[in-house]
Predict the structure.
Amino acid sequence: MKNNDDLQFDARHIWHPYSSVTTPSSIHEVIAAQGVRLTLSDGREIIDGMSSWWSTIHGYNHPRLNQAAKSQIDQMSHVMFGGLTHPPAIDLARKLIDITAEPLQKVFFSDSGSVAVEVAIKMAIQYHFAQGQIEKQTLLTLRNGYHGDTFGAMAVCDPENGMHSMFEKVLPKHLFAPAPTCQNDADWQDSDIAEFRQLISEHHQQLAAVILEPLVQGAGGMRFYCPEYLRQVRTLCDQYNVLLILDEIATGFGRTGTLFAYEQTDICPDILCVGKALTGGYMSLAATLCTDTVAQGISADGQGVLMHGPTFMANPLACRVACESIDILLESNWQESVRNIEQQLGAELSPYQTLDSVKDVRVKGAIGVVELHQPLDEQMDWLPPFIVDQGVWIRPFRNLIYIMPPYIIKPEDLTKLTQAIGKIIKKLA
């Protein structure tokens, strides 16, 4: 009875992400989590195929992450970062600088991935402004991209296929190149970069930066593309004095098979955004890293003050958990875990490619995607309960059924997820 009361209250008063309060979507109450399993208030256990929006790479209720949080909260849960610092932030900055490309030497902490993108955009514009290039305030990005839900981030999300088209008239206007189509370097064609090259050539005097998600476009369509595209982009940015921002909020910390996706391209960004898995899904925390060149460039006019300062910036509790999460990852054989997940996803999802309702099946690292011909919007009243009835948690969107499981998932649990995808496809048909 308590559960029914809770859910009824929730339906009347709580606004969930991407939902309507007049026609609330199906909601399940989670009361506990352990490993890769969520326990619902009705007693059922379901396998989480989403890593809580791609963040819980070590699974839930990890003893080392729990202990890190408990130890830190006894010392200090929060202190302002303006004019003060603390060991967890220093330790985390050291770790981030150590595990990212050598030129990335400056770290700005924030609360979420969207804010990390906002900071990156500010860095790029302020970098050029400080050097007297005040006309360079536009960004170039890719269609089918997603960078967050705050206004600056929304402005570089796909303006037509994205979630934010209703705000078109109030968002800054940026430039959009076609999304890359080449998935393998062996199939690279120069035509894939042609329109991007034309845009940066024609507009470079107004362009502050290029921003994109390296190798994997996430919530904008779960699309994969080849490393050569990024190499070409890096070369063009250097040629035209345009900074390169890489948004690794979804791909960072091993998801694509390397610690960061850009490592597969042998390039380095000028600015890097990380988040999501940074704390192993325990706390909200993100970071924007940049090179000394960018940092010094922002100071070129003698001012050098980056105009951003979140209240909970570098929260000690979140920073300490993030330090422990990075240690757990680096001490584990995560490469083999991701490689095994990739191989199993490929083997178990590829048969669905033959089904009439399936447009494409693609796998990269610990990401498995089944793209359907038809959107799922009209199915979302019955589909979530049906998924839970299969003993799993998967959250489809648009015409995509995808999973990004925790790295600790066992083969038999991963099979339950891939089999559930098959049952979803069959039910839809």
Notes: The longest helix spans residues 113-130. The radius of gyration is 22 Å. The chain has a mean pLDDT of 95.
